[in-house]
Amino acid sequence: MAHAFCVDYLANHAEFIPLLAGWHHAQWPLESDPSFEHRIEIIQDRLGRREIPTTLVALQGKSALGFVSLVANNMECHTELSPWLASLYVHPAFRQQGIGTALTEAILREAHALAIRCIYLFTPDQESFYERLGWRTISRKDYHGENVAIMACTLHVNPS
């Protein structure tokens, strides 16, 4: 059974930036940019609150469990698509407890609050996870040596 956790803006918990940058660096190695310092800059650039970019972090007590970002663009070959759910990561010790789902749903609420009608992501291996949450695959692409699914989620914005 999962223990209680909450989701909040990383901007309110900046002490976790180095930890999250380390997770980001380990999970998504980039040959073009191998530096850990650059990962810290990437995370620091996403410290918005109800804006793009922003990062949300799942917390339990004084521990970070995972994070996710909302960014303007996440694929240089698809700049026409925006915004993107990016960098969804849950520490392996906390997986299969609903944290990834909670983080994804929280980013969708952020996008909805910004009156965004559609949000995108790409994934090499988690297509079925996102499909269960209402995302649909719109194309596939070889991207940085991986076959990825590009997915979209339509948000229903209430007219004001």
Q: Explain this structure to me?
A:
The chain is of the alpha+beta class. Helices cover 26% and strands 31% of the residues. It has helices spanning 17-27, 36-44, 99-113, 127-132, and strands spanning 6-9, 54-60, 63-71, 84-90, 118-123, 136-143, 146-154. Strand 6 and strand 7 form a beta hairpin. Helix 1 packs across helix 2 (36-44). The chain starts with 5 loop residues before the first strand and ends in a 6-residue tail after the last strand. 31% of the residues are buried. The model has no long low-confidence stretch (mean pLDDT 91).
Can you describe this structure in just a few lines?
The chain is built from 4 helices and 7 strands, in the order βααβββαβαββ. It has 160 residues and is α+β, with helices and mostly antiparallel strands.
Overall geometry comes to globular
- Given helix and strand content, the structural type is alpha+beta
Question: Can you give the helix content as a percent range?
Answer: 25-40%
Beta-strand level of the residues, as a percent range? 25-35%
Query: Which runs of at least 5 residues are low in confidence (pLDDT < 50)?
Result: none
**Cα-to-Cα separation, first versus last residue:** 40 Å
Quaternary status of these chains?
single chain
* Number of strand segments: 7
The count of helical stretches stands at 4
Radius of gyration: 15 Å
Largest sheet: 4 strands, antiparallel
- Arrangement of strands in the largest sheet: 1-2-3-4
Topology:
Blueprint: E1 6-9, H1 17-27, H2 36-44, E2 54-60, E3 63-71, E4 84-90, H3 99-113, E5 118-123, H4 127-132, E6 136-143, E7 146-154
Helix pairs in contact: 1-2
